[in-house]
Amino acid sequence: MNPMNKIAQEIKTDPIKKLVIPSFILLLGFLARVWWIRTIPTEQLYDFDAYYRIAENIFNGKGFTYEGGAPIASKVCSIHGL
């Protein structure tokens, strides 16, 4: 029996290991996320702010507008060849 199968068998038979090992893995993942958020300088790049303002305008009933109420999208109907 290889070592991984032996470890898996021990986890299946021991209810404490069945609970502790997944809990330890979840805690380790949570701590890694907290460390990442506190130490790595992340900032929004590119057009996040523009999309956020457009979404606020939609929510506030101003439609698809950006700064000053200028529309960002327009529906243009044109029939070529007639």
Average predicted confidence as pLDDT: 81
Q: How many strands in all?
A: 0
Could you give a short account of the major beta sheet?
Answer: none
Portion in strands: under 5%
Write the element-wise H/E pattern from the N-terminal end onward. Answer: HHH
Please report the distance between the alpha carbons of the first and last residues. Answer: 78 Å
How would you describe the shape? elongated
**Overall tally of domains:** 2
Point out poorly predicted stretches: none
Structural class: mainly alpha
User: What Rg, in angstroms, do the CA atoms define?
Assistant: 27 Å
Instruction: State the helix count.
Output: 3
Helical residues, percent: 55-70%
Task: Note the main attributes of this structure.
0% strand; 82 residues; mainly alpha; 2 domains; elongated; 3 helices
Write up what this structure looks like.
With 82 residues, the protein is mainly alpha-helical. It folds into two domains: 37 residues; 40 residues, no CATH class. It has three helices and no strands. Helix 1 crosses helix 2. The protein is elongated. 0% of the residues are buried. The mean pLDDT is 81.
Summarize the structure.
The chain is mainly alpha-helical and 82 residues long. It folds into two domains: 3-39; 43-82, no CATH class.
